[in-house]
């Protein structure tokens, strides 16, 4: 169990991480803070620069056994924090407004417990993953040759969840987070003088057609196997000038489905719509995909281990709210390990994730640590 002194130290660490957020792919200082904190917890091995700035701390048991990985995220968001808190972000336009500072701290709490008592068998790997928010980090970590030495049998993660009562856990087998990807489409026609728009080919009408047409591709809820959602997130038409009739436009949309297979079909439909609309209006179209997230699916055996730990700790849990629409980079680990994620209630009235006034509840630090420690103990002794 964490002592009061442990909890005070971990709370100070969490607030220090909160004050110094770094966005995806730029987590160098955050990684250094984690390495400094890990030094006192004496892991048996540390891997650095995993898939970028990732870190894996390894605690080795005496006897052979499975490798159990617990993951947290290093990165923050490019959002301005609105807070009067003494530990508010020191970096304008960047904030830990998703709780990754708290998730890292929970893993550091687990490191404290493991430093005092190694697992009886197997290994525990504490992974601090970069670039979760862009969907690029897990893939980069898994592709890193260093990760071949980790090769987990089980992988676990948690995410704090505003809207759930504090300390209550959302847990279910099967899909728990949707697949998503960002579509960036460009429409190209021909510019003209604003006094002679007939001499150009404007993408205005095509853009106006595409925005509602893309949105209309969505249907159902996450309880439906063929759930789809398309959200137009940005659009731009021509230059910001009065003398030019536009000749180009861009549109950004997030495509979301319950499963990866359904995503392939939605992408195909969206691209057919894009190119058909462009042709109708005498335009050319090109596109690219960014921020690609696979769906996250909780393995039955891994989910059972979480449920067993929660029951042993007397913690309430159910599957309400799952699967959720939001995406999670943890889905990549589900393809190579028996993996599962739990959702730890941050409070029924707590500010929502990605909101400028969000802050991770420090009361979750010992709770999350206790859950992970129990899972490790049950699996490895």
From TrEMBL:
The keyword Cytoplasm does not apply. Its cofactor is Mn(2+). Mn(2+) binds at residues 98, 100, 133, 159, 354. The Mn(2+) ion enhances activity. Transmembrane segments: none annotated. GO terms for molecular function: hydrolase activity; metal ion binding. Residues 186-274 form the Peptidase M20 dimerisation domain. The keyword Cytoplasm does not apply. Keywords: Hydrolase, Manganese, Metal-binding. This is Amidohydrolase. It comes from Roseovarius litoreus.
């Amino acid at each position: 169990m964490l002592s009061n002194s442990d909890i005070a130290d971990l709370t100070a660490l969490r607030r220090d991480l909160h004050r110094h957020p770094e966005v995806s792919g730029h987590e160098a200082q955050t990684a250094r803070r984690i390495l400094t904190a890990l030094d006192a917890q004496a892991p048996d091995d540390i891997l650095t620069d995993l898939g970028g700035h990732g870190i894996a701390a390894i605690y080795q048991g005496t006897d052979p056994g499975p490798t159990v990985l617990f993951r947290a995220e290093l990165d923050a968001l490019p959002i301005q924090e609105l807070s009067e808190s003494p530990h508010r972000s020191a970096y304008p336009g960047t904030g830990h407004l998703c709780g990754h500072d708290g998730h890292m701290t929970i893993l550091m709490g687990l490191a404290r417990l493991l430093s005092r008592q190694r697992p009886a068998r197997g290994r525990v790997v504490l992974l601090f993953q970069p670039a979760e928010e862009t969907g690029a980090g897990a893939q980069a970590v898994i592709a890193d040759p260093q990760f071949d030495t980790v090769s987990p049998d089980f992988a676990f993660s948690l995410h704090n969840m505003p809207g759930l009562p504090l300390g209550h856990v959302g847990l279910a087998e099967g899909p728990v987070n949707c697949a998503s990807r960002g579509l960036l489409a460009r429409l190209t026609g021909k510019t003209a003088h604003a006094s002679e728009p007939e001499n150009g080919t404007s993408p205005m009408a095509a853009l106006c057609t595409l925005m509602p047409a893309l949105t209309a591709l969505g249907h159902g809820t996450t309880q439906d196997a063929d759930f789809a959602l398309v959200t137009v997130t940005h659009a731009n038409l021509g230059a910001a000038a009065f003398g030019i009739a536009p000749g180009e436009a861009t549109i950004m949309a997030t495509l979301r489905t319950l499963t990866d297979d359904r995503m392939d079909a939605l992408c195909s439909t969206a691209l057919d719509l894009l190119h058909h609309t462009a042709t109708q209006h005498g335009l050319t179209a090109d596109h690219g995909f960014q921020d690609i997230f696979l769906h996250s699916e909780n393995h039955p055996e891994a989910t059972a281990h979480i449920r067993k730990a929660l029951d042993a700790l007397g913690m309430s849990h159910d599957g309400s709210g799952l699967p959720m629409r939001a995406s999670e980079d943890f889905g990549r680990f589900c393809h190579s390990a028996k993996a599962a994620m739990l959702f730890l209630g941050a409070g029924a009235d707590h500010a929502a994730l990605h909101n400028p006034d969000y802050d991770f509840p420090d009361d979750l630090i010992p709770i999350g640590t206790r859950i992970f420690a129990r899972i490790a103990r049950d699996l490895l002794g």
